[in-house]
Each structure stands twice: as structure tokens, then as C-alpha cells.
Specification:
About 45% of the residues lie in helices and about 15% in strands. It is α/β, with parallel strands linked by helices. The strands form 2 sheets. Strands 4-3-2-1-5-6-7 form a 7-stranded parallel β-sheet, with helices on both faces. The radius of gyration is 20 Å and the shape is globular.
Length: about 375
């Protein structure tokens, strides 16, 4: 029986993780749940899964939740509440499904407290990979990726000698605008960008898919997860989202992981690892249904965020944290119709270029850079300081 803390339980990944838990009650229990502020849904989850601790990141919402008087549950709030969930003695694995840079500190806390981590929070590795991966080694825990692309790479590497890897290839759907003309992007509305052709995801990552910033973040993640140089990580557009990633070896063999686009598959794999769990609810893949699998290079003129993100990753230090924070602010501004879609890339690029990178940053340096970038990005979105 694996005992879980799920951070981000009311979001897209968190709710699907709980679906997996419900499907395998003999395999998993939930000891802690954390959400940003969805009191009603969190209360439903608490009544169903009966965790010992909950956290609401929004402190005012935590007070509301505490007033509900649910028995046998400790209510915590804010960043310290997230950390408390990660320290809970009964927890074996922490599922980090938080959106944004708030996922970094609890990821580190979980690792330092000897918990395995199932990671769906890209920003933890993008902003703090140089801190997270050494901590994983030092504390002897497992960090298992929940993203479909990194789950695919992780699966392709099972039983293989890491020294025999020539390169890694992550695939991208191309997002909602992959068939649009560049001239039309200035008129794109948030509802257009949120119509992802393949995946059901949260709003932020769906916009990142439309800009292809999500793929830049995944390349940076792969760099840290697998200690792979940037020059040996490739990204390609694969509109069908059947091949989730590939690994090419020194003998030119390529191993790929395939499956229908359903996040429950990589979630289930991560939670059950090293075992594979049979789930009749998941749709099996029949190769006769895969007659048209296509791949093409990424056009960085059409997807400038991909280039900006990769450049920041190569620069290292605090640059990725700044890039990520500016992107979060710009994406939110677009979702609120405060800026046009192409301005996301302009704002991120401007903030990154204005930043003085600090090499080999501490956790506090990363958090400070994140805060600075948010402030600068808000000025450019019209949100003030």
C-alpha cells in the first residue's frame, strides 16, 4: 500500500491522480491533499479519501475550509502548509501537481524528508533543477516524471545503460494554433488557444502548448532529469500525440513509447512504479489505428517562445527561473485578455534580456529572481509593479 500526498489535488492532474487512486483502492491511500483555493471540490475529496492533512494555499480560503468542521483532518495554509504535507510521517510519495513556481519549495522539502516524488510540476526542474537533482541523489529517493513525454523517456530507459543513449526526442502536438497562419495569431482569443486538439489539460499548460513554451520547459526538464546536454535533446511536432517521446541509442536503434493521449496512463505508471497496473478503463492502442503518424521540425519563427525558453535553459543559473516566471505572468495576462497572444513571447524575451543572471543560485536566489521577473513582467502587461 503506497501512501500519497497530492499537491494540486483540485487541478487537472490532481483530479486524475485521485481517479487512479479510486480505481486501485488496494494499492493507494491518500494521507494529504493540497489545493490553491477550490474549497468545494477539496471538501468533496476530503470526504471521499479521508486524508489526515489538507492545505489551502490561499490563507483566506483555508479559514473558510476550517469553518466547515470536517473531523479528523488538520487544516494548514500557504507555503508552510505545503511543506507540512510533504513532511507528514505517514507519506511515502508526494505527487507534485501544482501549477507554477510554487511547486519548487515543496518538491525540495519532500526530497529532503525522504519522500519519493511523482512530479508533474515542470517549473520545479526548470527553475531549480540544479538543486533538485543533487538532492534526489543525496537523499536516495526516486523522482518519477508525470508528464507524458518524460514518462515516455523514463520508460524507454528502463534496463538500458545511460551511456548508450545518443539523444532524446520529445514530441509536441503543436497546440491549438498549429494550422493557423502567423498573421492571424494577433487576433487569437483565449478561448481559441484553450481548444487543444488532443489533450485535456489545465488552462496554463494549454496556453504553453499553443506557444510551445511547454516543449522548451520539457527540454530543460530532460536536461536535468537525465543529465543530458541540450545538444542531444530534440523536440519535434507530432500532431497525433500517439508517440509520446523517443530515445535513440548509439547503435542507431530508436525506442519509443506509444499510447492514446490520456494523462491517466503516465499518472498510473508513476504512482505504481516499478509495477505496471492493469486498468480496463484505459483505451488500448491498436496499431491498425495508427496509419498516419507524422513528424516535423519546429518553426521557431512561428513558435518564438520555444527558442526563448531553450536559450534561457542553456544560459542556466537564474535565467530559467526568470523566463518561467515572466511566462506565467504573460500567460495569465493573455487569459484575462489584457495582452494579445504574440505579446507573450515579447514580454518573456524582454524580461529575460533585462535580467542579470546569477550563476549557481541558492533556493533563495531562485525565489528572488522569480519575484523580480514577475514584477517586471506585470509592468509590461499593464498590471503595474
Amino acid at each position: 500500500m503506497k501512501r500519497l500526498a497530492i499537491l494540486g489535488s483540485t487541478g487537472s492532474i490532481g483530479t486524475q491522480a485521485l481517479d487512479v487512486v479510486a480505481r486501485f483502492p488496494e494499492e493507494f491511500t491518500v494521507e494529504a491533499l493540497a489545493a490553491r483555493g477550490n474549497v468545494a471540490l477539496l471538501e468533496e475529496q476530503v470526504r471521499r479519501f479521508k486524508p489526515k492533512m489538507v492545505c489551502l494555499y490561499d490563507t483566506e480560503k483555508a479559514e473558510i475550509f476550517e469553518g466547515r468542521g470536517l473531523p479528523n483532518v488538520t487544516v494548514t495554509a500557504g507555503p508552510e502548509g505545503l511543506n507540512a504535507c510533504c513532511r507528514l510521517e505517514e507519506v511515502d510519495m508526494v505527487v507534485v501537481a501544482l501549477v507554477g513556481a510554487i511547486g519548487l519549495a515543496p518538491t525540495v522539502t519532500a526530497i529532503e524528508n525522504g519522500k519519493d516524488v511523482a512530479l508533474a510540476n515542470k517549473e520545479a526542474l526548470v527553475a531549480g533543477g540544479a538543486l533538485v537533482m543533487p538532492a534526489v541523489q543525496a537523499h536516495g529517493v526516486s523522482l518519477i516524471p508525470l508528464d507524458s513525454e518524460h514518462s515516455a523517456i523514463f520508460q524507454c530507459l528502463q534496463g538500458e545503460d545511460a551511456k548508450s543513449v545518443e539523444k532524446m526526442i520529445v514530441t509536441a502536438s503543436g497546440g491549438a494554433f498549429r494550422e493557423w497562419k502567423a498573421a492571424d495569431l494577433a487576433h487569437a482569443k483565449p478561448e481559441d488557444a484553450l481548444k487543444h486538439p488532443n489533450w485535456a489539460m489545465g488552462s496554463k499548460i494549454t496556453i504553453d502548448s499553443a506557444t510551445l513554451m511547454n516543449k522548451a520547459l520539457e527540454v530543460i526538464e530532460a536536461h536535468h532529469l537525465y543529465a543530458m546536454p541540450f545538444d542531444r535533446i530534440e523536440a519535434v511536432i507530432h500532431p497525433q500525440s500517439i508517440v509520446h517521446s523517443l530515445v535513440q541509442f548509439v547503435d542507431t536503434s530508436v525506442i519509443a513509447q506509444l499510447g492514446f493521449p490520456d494523462m491517466k496512463l503516465p499518472i498510473q505508471y508513476a504512482l505504481g512504479y516499478p509495477r505496471r497496473l492493469a486498468n480496463p478503463d484505459l483505451k488500448p492502442l491498436h496499431m491498425a489505428d495508427c496509419k498516419d503518424l507524422t513528424f516535423r521540425e519546429i518553426d521557431t519563427d512561428f513558435y518564438p517562445c520555444f527558442r526563448i525558453g531553450i536559450d534561457a535553459g542553456r544560459r542556466g543559473g537564474t535565467a530559467p527561473a526568470v523566463m518561467n516566471a515572466a511566462n506565467e505572468v504573460a500567460v495569465l495576462a493573455f487569459l484575462q485578455s489584457d495582452i494579445a497572444f504574440p505579446e507573450i513571447a515579447v514580454i518573456v524575451d524582454t524580461v529575460v534580456k533585462a535580467h542579470q543572471v546569477k550563476e549557481q543560485p541558492s533556493l533563495q536566489d531562485i525565489l528572488d529572481a522569480d519575484a523580480w521577473a514577475r514584477k517586471e513582467a506585470r509592468k509590461l502587461t499593464g498590471g503595474g509593479a
